[in-house]
Give the backbone structure.
Amino acid sequence: MVALRKVGKYEVGRTIGEGTFAKVKFAQNNETGESVAMKVLDRATIIKHKMADQIKREISIMKLVRHPHVVRLHEVLASRKKIYIILEFITGGELFDKIVHNGKLSENDSRKYFQQLIDGVDYCHSKGVYHRDLKPENLLLDSQGYLKISDFGLSALRVEGVRLLQTTCGTPNYVAPEVLSHKGYDGALADIWSCGVILYVLLAGYLPFDEVDLGTLYSKVEKAEFSCPPWFSVGAKSMIHRILEPNPDRRIRIEDIRNDDWFLKNYVSATYVENEDVNLDDVYAVFDDPEEHKACEPLGNDDVAPLVLNAFDLITLSQGLNLSALFERRQDNVKHQTRFVSQKPAKVLLSSIEVVAQSMGLKTHIRNYKMRVEGLSADRSSHFSVMLEIFQVAPSIFMVNIQRAAGDTEEYLKFSKIFCGKLDDLIFRPAVEKSRSRLLRVSKRQ
């Protein structure tokens, strides 16, 4: 039996999850016997990727929102090399998986989850916190089946004197139309729109806005072009139409949602301690290190930029010193990874890639400019996962690196060919490759 190790008052056990920048381990509080999830981050990696301030902000926000329908952050610990974030241990998985497994849910179950979601979101807003990435993948279920909002990585805090947020972020299928307009948006109303999309997905088993082409998708979102299936009740249809109102000034507010007859059916309000003391001393102790701040962007910066590659990074990433591998998608370059260069803005790249992945029935997890894509093999007999990261190589040129993370190499080759084919409009090709393509088209005609 593998010996457990201790971090403070916690006995640390098996790894239960792994992301780009962190591992999540099962742990137990020796003083209370409570099971917790311990998120372990490497300090050097955080500093290298200039993420300390963003993570500090996310942790501070999670400590502010202490509600039964929000994943609880207990405390933050640190050693010289590691940061340990102690979270509530959630065993029921993602609401997304429940929808995938069961298809559409009953109206009663859908309403119950929607009520819990609105309770949690309303509380966040009362604390000046706007989530900005609400979707079934970020909604967890505990052992009793209660909903828990998670992943505050894209969230924003209300700032005195600032009424509108500016950063375009979130998941394309769930994002509000005003977020796409680049004219500023109310964070609370944008979150309400996402809640409406989630309610639709719970009741229907599929998305109200779902197009492979990003332009078409955004056009439908901006006009709220969707229809409700015939099994939706009158009350559910009314609720969804009042939420998915493209004009935010006319969109229903949370207080009106709470007073709606359909919403109130079988409603059980969450109970919690209203004025629970929140202490951020442990967060400040872990992150307020002058040496770390030298490598970090100022706190409060709403945008996180892709990592910028210098010449040495490019050489290291390329095959030997031959940089042509960065600009070509030959079969021999995709055994384990594929790269392409684009002149599209990084955010457009990220959104487009996510839309394509989801259109292929794949599951996506995004943090900054990294994305994990997961799915089943073509014969549905095994799982595979792929890591994508966007790098900036020049002021207006970005490189997308796609790498197999798990699964069969042959399955990755099939995925890479189909996936990159769907991203063809994003890919920049040097003049030599364009000429070659024109010659091929001419030869085919002859």
User: Anything to note?
Assistant: Confidence is low (pLDDT under 50) at residues 290-303, 319-335, 432-446. Residues 159 and 379 are 50 Å apart (CA to CA). The longest strand covers residues 383-394.
